[in-house]
Design a protein that fits this description.
The chain has 501 residues and is α/β, with parallel strands linked by helices. The protein has two domains: 79-306 and 367-435, Alpha-Beta Barrel (TIM Barrel); 307-365, Dna Ligase, domain 1 (2-Layer Sandwich), CATH 3.30.1490. The protein is 29% helix and 23% strand. Strands 1, 2, 3, 4, 5, 6, 20, 21, 22 and 23 form a ten-stranded mixed sheet that branches. A hairpin with an 8-residue loop joins strand 2 and strand 3. Bound molecules: zinc ion (ZN) and copper (II) ion. Zinc ion (ZN) is lined by residues 112, 240, 269-270.
Length: 501
């Protein structure tokens, strides 16, 4: 790719003379800047003062308390993981190593209808209903309000930023005694009140997961009513749709209808067409999304693998080519094993083995590579890991998503250029989620910055060995502080709770 010098329109404000008497906290010198807007890269120095980017350009005359030579490295805005389940990880492992090691500086949490708050769970209510058990089996569900959760995040900051969604399934569990039916008007009013309070406290949107049992009985109208407060707070409607297989078009239509009725942007989570019978149908779904884009704001995210991961369920086995066990409460010894091997050892069918492992999690090889590539390449698609940090043997997307897009899909496969790849993980998600001052490497923006080697960057996490740092990520800055250098985490905890613009 051609490297260009700073263009004429910005050079006036960045002339070295203007900066002669200024000192900065840090200057990163000689970087190849990819600024997150999809603009071509250019050579520049980057000056940081406090938590902001103070200048980008030729800073020969300027001084700083410390300097870093980034020759041969790309400097990009810190990556924004558009889809995570890190609600609890931010508090229980605030170093956030699986994400920081990839260059991620912001996570969007509370996806798929499941957020850690507001929910107070006592073991007297029995086992935590799946899929909420992906976050915790109970004790961490101790926040009576979303404000209480955000207050704890603010008082014990993590190494990276968080933008938080409140989950509709969480609201249902907090509000309803029985989940296999639509909410009544009293319950809807209560959920709406909790949703409004969460948005007031700083949630950036509401997520739903009508695919999963705790919310499957919720009709469209319930979702609309619970999500009413989104508009007044400028929030986003984010959804793990009811169906990502045979009826995926109906699910897209339901999502678009909710967005139009409420007058709010929608984000389709981990877009995919799952199940062997649906291979190739991303042509149809992306065309459908493209047709609706001129009428309403739509976003979507995708992880760069042809295998999904969630709770284990016997119903889901038929649609997958292979199933791997990621955790099992009664049988932890089978984590990391093929379900077919487990079934063989138990001397039962795969369905019966799955039943015996519950509660449990799994990886399903249920997508076609061509669909994954088509969806990743779609202009509006953001990158989201959907990583499950508490699984005993997690899907490699938890540690590998961002370097895999940059290394495998950009450098090796050539799906798109590096500027586009970076945009999908920075400027685009910042715009779709309305994260002010994030997602671009420009003066005035927060100093969330990643330095990486474009030739070396690569995911090392695999289905066999899922917990591996990426190669090629050199330094990561979060709000101006170095949180990761090639030696590892620095221990800085400078993450903020982000709110919408
Ligand atoms: Zn989901
Ligand atoms: Cu998810």
């Amino acid at each position: 790719m051609q490297e260009v010098l700073l263009n004429a329109t910005t050079s006036a404000t960045l002339h070295p003379l203007n900066l002669m008497n200024q000192t900065f906290d840090l200057i990163i010198r000689n970087a190849s800047v990819i600024d997150g807007s999809k603009a071509p890269r250019f050579h520049a120095d980057i000056a940081i003062r406090a938590d902001k980017i103070a200048a980008v350009g030729k800073l020969d005359g300027a001084g700083a308390d410390s300097e870093l030579d980034a020759s041969g490295l790309v400097a990009a805005p810190g990556f924004i993981d558009a889809h995570t389940h890190d609600d609890r990880l931010l508090l229980s492992a605030p170093e956030m190593t699986p994400k920081l090691s990839q260059g991620v500086t912001t996570v969007v949490v509370g996806n798929c209808g499941i957020s850690l708050a507001p929910l107070e769970w006592s073991s007297a209510r029995g086992a935590m209903p799946p899929p909420l058990d992906l976050l915790d089996d109970g004790t961490w569900f101790r926040f009576p309000s979303f404000a209480a959760y955000l207050a704890e995040l603010r008082s014990c900051p993590a190494a990276i930023n968080a933008a938080c969604l409140v989950g509709h399934s969480t609201l249902r569990i907090q509000t309803m005694d029985e989940l296999e039916r639509p909410a009544n008007s009293k319950e809807i009013a209560r959920m709406q009140e909790l949703a409004r309070a969460a948005l007031q406290a700083g949630a950036v949107g509401i997520s739903t997961g009508t695919y999963y049992p705790p919310a499957a009985a919720a009709p469209t109208q319930e979702l609309i009513e619970v999500c009413r407060p989104l508009r007044e707070h400028g929030g986003v409607f984010v959804t793990h749709m009811r169906d990502e297989s045979e009826h995926v078009i109906d699910s897209l239509d339901e999502t678009f209808l909710i967005g139009r009725t409420l007058g709010v942007p929608v984000v389709i989570s981990h877009h995919k067409v799952a199940g062997i019978a649906n291979f190739g149908r991303s042509k149809e779904t992306l065309a459908h999304i493209a047709r609706h884009l001129p009428q309403q704001p739509i976003g979507l995210d995708c992880y760069p693998y042809a295998a999904s991961s969630t709770v284990l369920s016997a119903d889901r086995l038929k649609s997958a080519l292979r199933v791997l066990v990621t955790w099992s409460k009664p049988h932890p010894e089978f984590a990391g094993m093929e379900l077919s091997t487990v079934a063989q050892r138990m001397g039962v069918s795969a369905e019966a083995a799955a039943q015996r492992l519950l509660p449990a999690g799994a990886i399903y090889f249920s997508m076609q590579e061509d669909d994954v590539r088509r969806i990743l390449s779609f202009e509006e698609t953001m990158i989201g890991s959907d990583g499950l940090p508490h699984d005993a043997f997690p899907h490699p997307r938890l540690w590998g998503t961002f370097p895999r897009v940059l290394g495998h899909y950009t450098r090796e496969v050539g799906l798109f250029d590096l500027e586009t790849a970076v945009h999908k993980m920075t400027g685009l998600p910042a715009a779709k989620f309305g994260l002010a001052g994030r997602g671009l490497l420009q003066p005035g923006f927060y100093a969330d910055i990643v330095l990486f080697d474009a030739q070396q960057i690569q995911d090392r996490a695999t289905f066999e060995q899922p917990r591996q740092n990426a190669a090629g990520v050199r330094d990561v800055f979060v709000n101006g502080r170095c949180a990761w250098n090639h030696a590892g985490a620095t221990g800085a905890r400078s993450g903020h709770v982000l709110s919408r613009a």
